[in-house]
Amino acid sequence: MEVMQAINNRRSIRSYRNEPVSEEVIRTIIEAGIKAPSGKNKQPWEFVVVTGDKRLEMIRVMKQGIRDFKAQYKEVGSAEYTAAIMEQAPVIIFIFNPYGTHPWQEKTILQQSTELVDVQSVGAAIQNMILAATDLGLGSLWICDIIFAYRELCEWFKKDYQMVAALALGYTGETPPMRPRKSIDEVTEWI
């Protein structure tokens, strides 16, 4: 598949078939992520692949974290729906920044700037992974709703550094149309 074809075919998938994804395919997708550009070639990513019974355990932890968050702050956006989507996906890859701090920690301006570069680098890795998944015939969903169970998930993973996002992967159970996009002229200024 050509790059532009993968970009044009990529969709956020929210329904997955109950079909395992081979370790070889998962490794190929992570390899695509590792090849992403990163600021100062720091490669600020660590991938944690969750499958099988551990995935179900992680979902329980996430749902409890969402309930706790909701009890305290009342609003969790689409997090409950996202947890249900994650429950069907056979593979969830969590992406951590081992150089980053947790959102509640105090940061200097330099730390904030460095973490901004790191998060952009992680975003490039995730984009590469999503495009590789599309090329390999898998669906994916880039997940940020993990923030609503952030502490619980970090404790469960035993990670004392920044959790950036998660990526659900699996063979798609839907074929959604492309969602509307703004035109080039709406988002571009020529000087």
Can you describe this structure?
- The protein is of the alpha+beta class.
- It has a single domain (3-175), classed as NADH Oxidase (3-Layer(aba) Sandwich), CATH 3.40.109.
- The protein is built from seven helices and four strands.
- It has helices spanning 3-9, 23-34, 52-73, 79-88, 109-135, 150-157, 184-187, and strands spanning 46-51, 91-97, 139-143, 162-170.
- A four-stranded antiparallel beta sheet has the order 1-2-4-3, sandwiched between helices.
- The longest helix has 27 residues, at 109-135.
- It is globular and about 45 Å long.
- The termini are far apart.
- The mean pLDDT is 96.
Task: Tell me the β content.
Answer: 5-15%
Strand order of the largest sheet: 1-2-4-3
The number of helical elements comes to 7
Structural class: alpha+beta
- Total domain count: 1
List the helices and strands and how they pair.
Elements: H1 3-9, H2 23-34, E1 46-51, H3 52-73, H4 79-88, E2 91-97, H5 109-135, E3 139-143, H6 150-157, E4 162-170, H7 184-187
Antiparallel strand pairs: 1-2, 2-4, 3-4
Helix pairs in contact: 1-5, 2-5, 3-4, 3-6
Structure, briefly:
The chain has 191 residues and is an alpha+beta fold.
Keywords, please?
single chain, 191 residues, alpha+beta, NADH Oxidase, 4-stranded antiparallel beta sheet, 7 helices
